[in-house]
Write a structure and sequence with these properties.
With about 70 residues, the protein is α+β, with helices and mostly antiparallel strands. It is built from two helices and three strands; from the N terminus they run E-H-E-E-H. The protein has one domain: Alpha-Beta Plaits, CATH 3.30.70.100. It has a three-stranded antiparallel sheet with strand order 1-3-2. The longest helix is centred in the first third of the chain and has 12 residues. The radius of gyration is 10 Å and the shape is globular. It starts with a strand and ends in a 6-residue tail after the last helix. Bound molecules: copper (II) ion. The site of copper (II) ion has 4 residues, from helix 1. The site of copper (II) ion (CU) has 4 residues, from helix 1.
Length: about 70
């Protein structure tokens, strides 16, 4: 399953790394692609192990609340 989240606070490579590393650690997440150009985080995940709500909560925790 793919979730595309808008994260306005992503503005540089550092943000991209922080967001990518945090989300990638979640069990069930198979791929993460973040962009400071589009301010989007695309997350490929196994819905049996994780859901969009948990991904959103993780983004909030590291200081990048999704819109
Ligand atoms: Cu940044």
């Amino acid at each position: 399953m793919l979730a595309t989240l808008k994260v306005p606070r992503i503005h540089c490579d550092g943000c991209v790394n922080t967001v990518t590393n945090a989300v990638r650690k979640l069990p069930g997440v198979t791929a993460v692609e973040a962009s400071e150009v589009t301010k989007e985080v695309k997350v490929q995940f196994d819905p049996a192990q994780v859901n969009e709500q948990k991904i959103r909560a993780t983004l909030n925790l590291v200081g990048y609340p999704p819109a």
